[in-house]
Specification:
The chain contains 29 helices and 7 strands. The protein has 682 residues and is mostly helical. Strands 4-3-5 form a 3-stranded antiparallel sheet. A hairpin with a 4-residue loop joins β3 and β4. The longest helix has 35 residues. InterPro entries: ABC_transp_permease, LivM-like.
Length: 682
């Protein structure tokens, strides 16, 4: 590993300019697309005009909505400048400009163009992912044809001393300043065009002048912030970790273990296997792919979080009318996410193949439907006042979850001795039985007619402000966001707990886990109960939002859909499960329906399909397209879209078979000098 002795050796003047020019030119195209094609600057002007002319019906007259829109645009502007400073500081300078420009084009430019063309968020993202996958495939083929081999991860690392870190910080400041200056100039040109065309009133010229001056100043400080983020992932000379004397590295406090000793971070990386070293090195800066590093990911998540939280306010501004239907569909997406998180515990963590997961969803749905509707009067004779019983929604979230957890235990108890295909068949039967049972219970569930008029939740009013649960989808959108946040927190805590480690041990090797002292009975039952618990929460939300529940809404194929979310996203990976749920739901329920809308439009290029193929619709070939997508993902990405590190190493173990394995004393034949030297006997 090369250790830099001075900032000149680490970051020479020419090497400082190369990443700066490379990234400024690469980010110039997305700025122009955002400003001129997607009309990002016009959105900002519309916000100001809404404040200045509230009586004009052309603009949004809600100060609260305008304020939130302004906050989001401010977050986008500031985060983008921080990202520019980070990329300039974190780039190693080894990649050529063309490769960087291609990465930026297919990562940022293509989704922005598709968003402007389709005016649909999920379709643009879905097509962008497909184009990105094709680009990666072609890029890898080109590299193979050119016999390109990426540099070893450890040899490309540098230890950054104090002077080197100061130089990196200055580089980030320059990147943020010049990026903000270019951004200000492009926005100024756009505003001048609007002014000449009459779309920009004279009063906004003051804002244009102020913004043009403030952006470069803010860029200097925000670039420094991006550099500070990059410095969190550099290797410092004083960065030490603890390692036991047998060579296994462990982080911890000094002296927490009697045989621990201090080693440098570079020594720790050298002692890792090739696959582990590659995983660790990709987040250390400077590196060859700063766009995919952990620091950049943190900035992406910050912008994504702001977008998700403020989406109901942004939807009419970004995508026009019919925002109510889009927000409703995204609220439905939320309970799919919760179901995927629950099934990930059973299948991803514990390795128990459950094909009857829909049964727990049905139980949770009926748990609230029987209480929060007029059906409660038929069962108990107690008059259920909607204004009163709607408040029971909140405790019923936990009560229904506990009821489904109990059913999870009842299902798991008879299957404790089953594994693999046999467990899948039993759980599949359970998933078939439960909907049929609710269909035959006419006295309690109205049979095939189902239960109508399920009460929505109730919330207190703050002054004159009251949430409209009956006609607005926005309260349900924020409710499901809160529930998803709580479920993610619970999943992370379960995964990192002693119980979560026991689940993973059972998944890897049940016999070895049992030999290590893990109680297989209790651990498996906890897995079934935890997975069913989340399904119960999703069921209560689904019943309250839909307002009507019928047994025909559920079938065993739903369990296959939920399982596909987990497998496509990545078994055992919480971020992967979130992405898998979004992908499967979008493809199966949103994108194909939208494609039918496009095909029915004579002005759309897809209209030729129904013209030349009789009775053609994308809905008719839904299962065919969905099956082809599943096959493609399983062939080219078997570990999932965002796999866990453990899963990735398992499925790509063959790629690392040629790596050198460190031999221990037990690898030496007894009686040899090497064995005696390693195993001294007093």
């Amino acid at each position: 590993m090369a250790v830099s002795e001075s900032p000149r050796k680490l970051l020479p003047t020419t090497e400082t300019r190369k990443p700066l020019i490379k990234w400024l030119v690469a980010l110039l195209v997305p700025i122009c697309i955002f400003t001129f094609v997607w009309l990002g600057e016009q959105i900002v002007n519309q916000i100001w005009l809404g404040f200045l002319y509230p009586q004009n019906q052309t603009y949004d007259s809600s100060y609260w909505s305008l304020t939130l829109q302004g906050i989001f645009m401010l977050i986008v502007y500031l985060s983008t400048i921080v990202l520019a400073g980070y990329l300039v500081a974190a780039d190693s300078g080894r990649r050529n400009m063309i490769e960087v420009w291609c990465d930026v084009a297919f990562t940022v430019v293509v989704p922005l163009v598709l968003l402007a063309v389709t005016d649909n968020l999920l379709i643009s993202l879905g097509l962008g992912v497909v184009i990105w996958a094709v680009y990666l495939l072609i890029r890898n083929r080109v590299r193979l044809a050119m016999n390109y081999a990426p540099p070893p991860p450890l040899e490309s690392l540098h230890v950054i001393d104090a002077q080197g870190r100061a130089a990196m910080l200055r580089t980030a400041q320059q990147g943020g300043f010049w990026f903000a200056t270019i951004f200000a100039v492009i926005s100024l040109v756009a505003d001048l065009i609007f002014y000449v065309s009459g779309a920009l009133p004279d009063v906004l010229l003051i804002w244009v002048a102020v913004r043009t001056i403030l952006l470069p100043v803010a860029g200097y400080f925000l670039g420094r912030l991006g550099g500070a983020i990059a410095l969190r992932y550099v290797i410092k000379p004083e960065t030490n970790v603890e390692a036991t004397q047998n060579g296994q590295n462990e982080k911890g406090r000094q002296g927490w273990r009697s045989n621990a000793r201090k080693v440098s971070r570079e020594q720790q990386l050298h002692s890792l296997s090739a696959s582990r070293a590659k995983e660790e090195a990709k987040d250390v800066v400077p590196n060859d792919r700063p766009l995919q590093s952990k620091g950049a990911t943190r900035i992406y998540l910050w912008m994504l979080t702001a977008f998700v939280i403020l989406y109901p306010i942004l939807d009419p501004v970004l995508f026009g009318s019919e925002s109510k239907g889009r927000i409703t569909s995204y609220g439905d997406l939320g309970f799919y996410v919760i179901l995927a998180l629950g099934l990930n515990i059973v299948v991803g963590f514990a390795g128990l193949l459950d094909l009857g997961y829909v049964a727990f969803f049905v139980i949770g749905t009926y748990s609230w439907s029987l209480v929060g509707s007029s059906q409660f009067y038929k069962l108990t004779g107690i008059i259920a006042n909607p204004s009163t019983f709607s408040w029971f929604f909140w405790p019923m979230i936990i009560i229904a979850a506990l009821i489904t957890a109990l059913w999870g235990i009842l299902l798991g108890a008879p299957t404790l001795r089953l594994r693999g295909d046999y467990l899948a068949i039993v759980t599949l039967g359970f998933g078939e039985i439960i909907p049929i049972v609710f269909t035959q219970m006419d006295k309690y569930t109205n049979g095939t007619d189902g239960i109508a008029g399920v009460y929505p939740p109730a919330t207190p009013c703050i002054g004159s402000f009251c949430l409209n649960w009956s006609s607005s989808p926005t309260p349900y959108y924020y409710l499901i966001l809160i529930i998803i946040g709580a479920c993610i927190f619970a999943n992370v805590r379960l995964r990192d707990s002693k119980l979560g480690r026991a689940w993973i041990a059972i998944r890897e090797d049940e016999i070895a886990a049992s030999s290590s002292g893990i109680n297989l009975v209790n651990t498996k039952l906890f897995a079934f109960a935890a997975g069913a618990f989340f399904a119960g929460i999703a069921g209560v939300y689904h019943a309250a939002k839909l307002g009507t529940v019928t047994p025909t809404d559920f079938n065993s194929t739903d369990s296959i859909i939920y399982l596909a979310m987990v497998v496509i996203g990545g078994l055992g990976s919480i971020p992967g499960v979130l992405v898998g749920a979004v992908v499967v739901y979008a493809i199966n329920l949103l994108i194909l329906n939208q494609l039918d809308t496009y095909a029915s439009d004579p002005s759309n290029f897809l209209h030729f399909l129904p013209q030349h193929i009789a009775n053609f619709s994308f809905d008719n070939i839904r299962n065919l397209l969905f099956g082809l997508i599943l096959i493609a993902i399983m062939i080219f990405r078997p570990e999932g879209l965002i796999p866990s590190a453990r899963r990735r190493r398992e499925l790509h173990r063959a790629e690392n078979e040629d790596e050198k394995v460190e031999e221990s004393s037990l690898d030496q034949p007894p009686g040899t000098p090497e064995f005696e030297a390693e195993m001294p006997v007093d």
